[in-house]
């Protein structure tokens, strides 16, 4: 099964590697580079290499694992490695990893010699349903998320849930946050489906991953440059990214996974939707309960909140000095470019604390 709603088609399960082998056989790639981090080198690379029929000469490039290494310093190391290994404009980069590897690898490929082709093979649930589809590449600037990057699509995205067997539960939950977001912005039917999973088992997930990718791909097709509709994919992210950034570099805070921060952001955004868009209160209570059943509550103190609010000014959806939120009128009815007074943000944190 493929989905060509984005420039680079998405292939699933067995078809994915058949397509890759055909592509490698037919492409005139001068060299093939496989980008992994320490975790995917250990857990996923051997499984991936077994799927290759006519293996050309591969060069393995490894980076440190984790969001803290998603920066220009890591990119510089990779650009230098590509140069030293005689990469040219006909080289191909295969990014085998989670969102850090696919975001950073896509950016490195898109900028090396003004752009070489790349393929994404996401190995985390988060990367499958979010990071690897839609052509967004990029890295963080200090603790500011995804400030440097370009939109440039992969040649193809290959999704195989076999890689999810290597993931710890907290990483599975992190990816589930983006699936929950797709439910909130698309339809009540999908929201109910993804919150009634009795357990995160791989059989249930295959169909949900496909559906989630299709929801995102449909939005990206209609608005590839994020001028309007694509902003809906940022539901929960305006505060969620700021929370993630704050916890990433605060010396006394435990770093949050992306989905853990976005889960908080979605509760806050849903409460703000109640205040500003007449979102139904009983649905807010239901969303809050379902999210807190999955994600451990995050502790905030009074010193944290002004610094988190300050970080929101770097959000990429902002324009003309305004911080723009995506809110909901109802499940499946997002509203773009909402201005939110600071006192209501404080109220939303109070709601979260008391939930």
UniProtKB/TrEMBL annotation:
3-dehydroquinate synthase C-terminal domain span: 175-318
UniProt KW NAD keyword: yes
SUPFAM superfamilies: Dehydroquinate synthase-like (SSF56796)
Record carries keyword Transmembrane helix: no
Organism domain of life: Bacteria
GO BP terms: aromatic amino acid family biosynthetic process; chorismate biosynthetic process
Residue ranges of every copy of the 3-dehydroquinate synthase N-terminal domain listed in the record: 61-173
UniProt GO cellular component terms: cytoplasm
UniProt-listed CDD domains: DHQS (cd08195)
EC class (word): lyase
Record's keyword terms, sorted: Cobalt, Lyase, Metal-binding, NAD, Nucleotide-binding, Zinc
EC number(s) given by UniProt: 4.2.3.4
Record function comment: Catalyzes the conversion of 3-deoxy-D-arabino-heptulosonate 7-phosphate (DAHP) to dehydroquinate (DHQ).
Name by which UniProt lists this protein: 3-dehydroquinate synthase
Native source species: Salegentibacter echinorum
């Amino acid at each position: 099964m493929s989905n060509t709603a984005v420039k680079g088609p998405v292939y699933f399960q067995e078809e994915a590697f058949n397509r890759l082998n055909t592509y490698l056989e037919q492409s005139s790639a001068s060299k093939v580079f496989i980008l992994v981090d320490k975790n995917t080198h250990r857990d996923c690379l051997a499984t991936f290499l077994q799927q290759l029929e006519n293996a050309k000469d591969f060069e393995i490039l490894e980076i440190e694992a984790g969001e803290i290494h998603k920066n220009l310093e890591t990119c510089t190391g990779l650009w230098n490695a590509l140069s030293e290994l005689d990469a040219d404009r006909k080289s191909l980069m295969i990014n085998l990893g989670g969102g850090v590897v696919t975001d950073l690898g896509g950016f490195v490929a898109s900028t090396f010699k003004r752009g070489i082709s790349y393929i994404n093979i996401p190995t985390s649930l988060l990367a499958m349903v979010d990071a690897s589809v839609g052509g967004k590449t990029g890295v963080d600037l200090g603790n500011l998320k995804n400030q440097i990057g370009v939109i440039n699509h992969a040649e193809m995205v290959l999704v195989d849930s076999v890689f999810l067997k290597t993931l710890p539960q907290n990483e599975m939950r992190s990816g589930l946050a983006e699936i929950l977001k797709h439910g909130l912005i698309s339809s009540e039917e999908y929201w109910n489906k993804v919150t009634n999973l009795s357990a995160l088992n791989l059989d249930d997930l295959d169909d949900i991953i496909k559906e989630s990718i299709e929801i995102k791909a449909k939005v990206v097709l209609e608005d590839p440059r994020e001028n309007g509709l694509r902003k809906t994919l940022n539901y929960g992210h305006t505060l969620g990214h700021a929370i993630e950034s704050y916890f990433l570099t605060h010396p006394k805070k435990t770093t949050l996974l992306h989905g853990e921060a976005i889960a908080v952001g979605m509760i806050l955004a849903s409460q703000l939707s109640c205040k500003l868009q007449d979102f139904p209160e009983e649905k807010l209570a239901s969303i809050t309960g379902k999210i807190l059943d999955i994600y451990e509550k995050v502790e905030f103190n009074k010193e944290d909140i002004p610094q988190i609010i300050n970080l929101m000014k770097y959000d990429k959806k902002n324009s003309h000095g305004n911080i723009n939120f995506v809110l909901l009128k109802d499940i499946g009815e997002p509203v773009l470019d909402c201005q939110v007074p600071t006192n209501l943000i404080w109220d939303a944190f109070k709601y979260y604390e008391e939930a």
